[in-house]
Amino acid sequence: QKEVEQNSGPLSVPEGAIASLNCTYSDRGSQSFFWYRQYSGKSPELIMFIYSNGDKEDGRFTAQLNKASQYVSLLIRDSQPSDSATYLCAVNFGGSSGDKLTFGTGTRLAVRP
Amino acid sequence: KAGVTQTPRYLIKTRGQQVTLSCSPISGHRSVSWYQQTPGQGLQFLFEYFSETQRNKGNFPGRFSGRQFSNSRSEMNVSTLELGDSALYLCASSWFRGGTDTQYFGPGTRLTVL
């Protein structure tokens, strides 16, 4: 059973700080990686995806992928109270697992004003 | 462009009944994936449909089934409902490949089984 692990949190950071969210996965051959944000009572919305090792930046968000160590992280710079949500990491393991996403259980982020 | 729509938004059923949920993907999207979300298990993949064919399947019992129509709309059915089936059921559409392309989620159907 291929797994995606996240710390459930809550991760509490002050407004303006950098929030660092981490995700580990069980298969080194995994192909694509996604970060979704889910506000309470709402459906998930995509923040970023990353396929290659290294960093990918989009505005205040940076995704970092290290396939050798099997982790992917999301950094949120200048955190705002509106960033308070659950962040879901999703991995496409591919191969025998098929072309589908496996989600972690999410990390709850709380940004203190 | 209209987003993913799901109907109904809320359902209350009793054990043993069956239920059908509907999902209309974003126009032009051909892949529809279904997920079950519960507080304890998080988002669990049910199945994916593409061109009216089930392309991937998760680890759920046969009581969970689905289908896709020629216009890409999809339905999922749960028969012989159990209390543990209470969950938020989300569908997500993507252009071609559910595991690779960006998935856009609908608002979900909240199912309560009494």
Q: In sequence order, what are the helices and strands of chain A, one letter per element?
A: EEEEEEEEEEE
Please provide the ordered H/E string of secondary-structure elements of chain B: EEEEEEEEEEE
Number of helices in the DSSP assignment of chain B: 0
List low-confidence stretches of chain B.
none
Number of strands of chain B: 11
- Helix percentage of chain B: under 10%
Number of helices of chain A: 0
Shape of chain A: globular
Radius of gyration of chain A, in Å, reads: 14 Å
N-to-C CA distance of chain A = 40 Å
Structural class of chain A: mainly beta
Helix proportion of residues of chain A, in percent?
Answer: under 10%
Main beta sheet of chain B: strand number and arrangement?
Answer: 7 strands, mixed
What percentage of the residues of chain B does DSSP assign to strands (E)? over 45%
Can you tell me about this structure?
Chain A is mainly β and 113 residues long. Chain A has strands spanning 4-6, 11-14, 19-25, 32-38, 45-50, 54-58, 61-66, 71-76, 85-92, 102-103, 107-112. In chain A, strands 2, 4, 5, 9, 10 and 11 form a six-stranded mixed beta sheet that branches. A five-stranded antiparallel beta sheet of chain A has the order 1-3-8-7-6, with no helix packed on it. In chain A, strand 4 (32-38) and strand 5 form a beta hairpin. The model of chain A has no long low-confidence stretch (mean pLDDT 93). In chain B, the strands form two sheets. In chain B, strands 2, 4, 5, 6, 9, 10 and 11 form a seven-stranded mixed beta sheet that branches. A four-stranded antiparallel beta sheet of chain B has the order 1-3-8-7, with no helix packed on it. The model of chain B has no long low-confidence stretch (mean pLDDT 94). Chain B has 114 residues and is mainly beta. In chain B, strand 7 and strand 8 (74-78) form a beta hairpin. In chain B, 39% of the residues are buried. Chain B has strands spanning 5-7, 10-13, 19-24, 31-38, 42-50, 53-57, 64-68, 74-78, 87-94, 104-105, 109-113. Chain B starts with a strand and ends with a strand. Classes of the chains: A mainly beta (113), B mainly beta (114). The interface between A and B is medium-sized, with 22 and 24 residues.
